[in-house]
Amino acid sequence: MNSVRQQRAKMEGLRERKRRTTLVRIAENGLRLFIKDGFEATTLEAVATAAGISARTLFYYFKTKEELLQYWRDESFFTALGPTLIAEAREKNPLQATRDTILKLVSRYETDRSIVVDRLMQSTEALRARKQASFVEMETIVYGVLRERYPDEKSQMLRTVAMLAFGALRLAMQKWREDGAVRQLAKYVRTEFDLLGLALR
Q1: CA 83, 120, 141 angle in degrees (round to 5)?
Q2: pLDDT tens for residues 57-101?
Q3: CA 120 distance to own-chain centroid
Q4: Does residue 166 contact residue 146 with C-beta atoms inside 8 Å?
């Protein structure tokens, strides 16, 4: 009985490893073709051919090109956002804590792959809309933490802080891209928050 269970577990383990290997191969070939030929010009059929699989197999992993590109989104920024803000909120006001949280995490956007993916995310209207949706997602995470850490503050004020903070990040990233992403993104973030501070005086 144990040998049957062990054999079944081994087979399931092999299938899962094969599935992960295929997933990575598809994603890597997709990104390579997006960079080489452009996002709009690349078809899922071309990605399947490059990955050495059938289009039907590819659709099991990714239904759309947008979904394939989203595979490369760095989730670490999102997962670290809440815990980092909790730590920063101990002795700072809500806007300062949010600014310092963003400054601590923003370097995660600056890897070569993240820069390439960010540029691709600007290449179509649909991708730009999805990028904006990710900022809304981050605002929501921050707003939830701010409400928890600053229970005596008005809810609407905390929502405004979250929106202003990620508005500043969007502007910083836009200027950073326009300048070729050659300087540290954190410098642009600091500049935008300084301007925000002046505007709020």
Answers
A1: 20
A2: 999 999 999 999 989 987 888 899 999 999 999 889 999 999 999
A3: 13
A4: no
Any alpha helices (H) in the chain, and if so which ranges?
Answer: 2-37, 44-51, 55-61, 65-70, 76-88, 94-105, 112-121, 125-149, 155-178, 185-199
**Cα–Cα distance, 56 to 63 (Å, whole number):** 10
Tokens of 175: 């200027």
Q: What is the pLDDT of residues 147-160, one digit of tens each?
A: 999 999 999 999 99
Burial class from Cβ neighbours inside 10 Å (0-12, 13-18, 19+) for residue 172 reads buried
pTM for the model stands at: 0.80
What is the DSSP track for 46-61? HHHHHHTS-HHHHHHH
Please, what is the average pLDDT of the chain?
Answer: 90
